[in-house]
Each structure stands twice: as C-alpha cells, then as structure tokens.
Fold this protein.
Amino acid sequence: MKTRTRRRTGWTVISAVAALGLALAGCTAENADDGGSDGGSGTTTEGEETVETSDGDLTEIEVALIPGGAHPYFQPWQDGAEAAVAEFGVGGYTFNETGEWDQTKQNAAIDSLAAQGYEAFAIFGVSPTDINSTFSSLKGQGFSVAAVASCPAGDENEADYCLSTDTGEAAYLAAVATIDAMGGEGNLVHLTGNAVDSNTQRRIEGVERAVEETDGAVTLIQTVTDVDEDLQTAQRAVDDLLASRGAEITGIVTTAYNPAVAATQGVGSSDLDITVVGIDDDETILTAIQNGSITGTVVQNPWGQAYISTWALASLQAGVCTVNDPGFVVDSGSFLVTQENLDTYDDERMTRTEELLTAFQTEYLNCE
C-alpha cells in the first residue's frame, strides 16, 4: 500500500500541542512456540532506569515497529508509520524485523533499540504466552508499548493496549463467504498458520463456528496448519492437498497469507471446480478476484495498525495522552472483498481507520 496522508478534523487541542499520528490478526507468527521457553523478555528488570517524558513534544519521540520476523503482512506498517510521522509531527520511526520468529532474538532487538534511544514500541510478539513479560519490562523502564497485530494469549495484556484483527471474526467472515459461494453445502478445507499460535486457534474456532451453523450441510474435511512459513511451504501443501483430495473438495478457506496465495495459484492452474476465499490483498489474490478465478478475500488493516500506533505511542510517551483502561483491546478491522467492491474496499478500510483514530483520541485515551 502506498503512503497516504489523510486530513484529520475535530481535534484541535492535540493539533495545537503538536501534529500527531494507525490492523491480522492478525497475522500468524511462524514459530510462536519457539524461543519463548526460556523466559519472555530479554530486557533486564534489576537496575533498570526509567525515562522521562518529553513534555508534549512529539518531535522528540521515535517509535520502533517490531514484527516477530519477516512476513509480507507487515510491509504496510512502514507506510502507515511514515504517514503518521509526516502528518502528526512524530520524531521518526524504525521498522525492525530481525526477530526471526524467535522470542529471545526479538527481545535482543528490542533491547538494542531501547539502547539506541527509542522510547515507544509497537510489537508483534513471537510468543503470545511469553510476550507479557517483555511488555512489563518495557513499561517498567518508562516506555510506551502496544501489542500490534497479535494480542498476548489469555486474558491479560501488560502493554498499554492491543490493536489487532479479531482473527476469529475474520476467519468466520471468510468461512461464511466461502460456504455461501459453495451453495451452502459440500466439503470444506481450511488452510492456516502455526497450530500453537493463539491467532491460529481463534481462526480455527471461527471457521468451525461457520460450519456448525450449516447444520451438517457443510463438512470440514481437513484443517491444514503450519503452512505459512513461506510461500514455497504453502505451495507444496496445496499441491499435495489437490493431488490427494482435490476431487472431493468443494471449497477452500484460507486464513493465513502464504497459503492464500498458494491456494489461489494452485486452484487457478488446475481443472478443479473449487471455491476459494483468501486473506489479505496480495496482488495475485486481487487479480484472481478480478478475473473470477476465486470468490474473494478478507483483508486486514496493517497500514492502520501502524498509523494509529505511531501516533498513539508517541502521544503516550510525550505525556500528551494517558490510557483510560490499560491493556484495552481493539479490533483494527477486517473486510470482505469480492468483484463487487474490488475497486472501493480500501475506502472502507480507510474509513475504519478514521473511526479508530477518533476512538483513540476521544474514548480510549485521555489527551490534554
């Protein structure tokens, strides 16, 4: 997605102080069960020094955006952050994907960025079960912290907030669309990410809920996990699936980026009459929707996640805003795209981003 600068109205108090700055959940971490076994945070708690706020000057705040590792889902984060910096006068941002889907390595990257002077952190934690200790350590040092695109496992969130796709609802939306395109009956396959990731478990539950609502008219014949490591892994999985079970499959719903692309390619190059609904807006998927090869896709809002978080975290760190309910969770939005709205879906996503920003400014945060 290209960088877009958007006009904001109706919040003159903050703009008078300083120009300020937004998605998966939603993306599936590849090794969420790895690297977290020897403690969540690599940051130390003994002898930590806290930082001072910047007296309302956002130009002094630099925000670190830290995915769990390299993945196409996170690329719009850079554009969203860049737009927020330009529009709201945030001091700057960095994008660091060197965690390699290992919690220990991600913690090391976070420690390094803190040592370099970054004071605000938007983090997709590799290990949902361990990331809260990382958040707690950063908060203990006086930093502002957000869980972005993935919330911690369980009911506790030690970050200031979590802004993420409601992955269960997004998967449900995709499954319902697939089932409708199947004519409400037949055999469904679900392709998704790492089985132990809490996001994946929510997606599995969302698909199962949609199937249950058909009262037996649709059968979920297979759920294929752990196929989002890279495109090659996903392509092998789709090739094997189509070769072994293609004739009995009526529809495929995909809830992770790489298997969505692979299913689009695999079904499109076959003679099989299989309905496909993907996730995200890779160009391969959008082209396939346009030419009718697949039914649709459910897009998320990574641009908005980074755009809002760059502004929000800078505002929190500068002391311009405080959190009303620490640890609050917000759905960044998911949207079904078909031929009917292929040319306009991004307007819907940007409208959602506008609404989210207003909610952060007026409801979730208390801003001077």
Remarks:
- The radius of gyration is 21 Å.
- Confidence is low (pLDDT under 50) at residues 1-54.
- The chain has two domains: 12-165+301-334+344-367, 167-299.
